[in-house]
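Exercise: predict the fold of this chain.
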Amino acid sequence: MADKGILLTDAQIAALEKKEHDDEACGEIETAHPGYLDSQDTFYVGNLKGVGRIYQQTYVDTYCNVPHCKLYTTKTPITAADLLNDKVLPFYETQGLPELRILTDRGTEYCGKVEQHDYQLYLAINDIDHTKTMSPQTNGICERFHKTILQEFYQVTFRKKLNVDLAELKKNLDEWLVYYNNDRTHQGKMCNGRTPKDTLLNGKQVWEQKNLTQT
């Protein structure tokens, strides 16, 4: 008997596509190497006396879990692009790795018409693909990192000193990120008990070997 295959309804096809999209949004896809698929999100830190609302732009590599963060007093397309320009792309350049694709939610700091939106324009100029999730909750890898940084950095920092100024907070954040990347082991799929930095270096070797076999 000939195999007639399985006929799916439009609703079933849509459900499968949504499942694939949500898995991807949560970093549940096979990422080939560091820089292959990365996640960016905005985290509201709180109010600082004399400063006002403080936001953290967060970037996490879905392969190795290396994060980059920077604090701002606004949540705009320019601040979203600034993190990439100041921290992320220079880092990947020093590692000799490409930055191929970024995952974000549909917040106004990330989405808009390319010709009128600083973040979208920055991605286009640097030839970085942009994947947009349906809601902030599906950007899973950043959500998990935000829980960690809240518990292990911000809550500890504000318990020690209630009146932290912005410059001091930025300095402390940079120091904590060095610890997180280089000393704190991670149980993520690719890390498997290694630090994010060690996982990145291992992934870099994998990427270099693949390039050699393709040339």
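Check your answer against the key: The longest helix spans residues 140-160.
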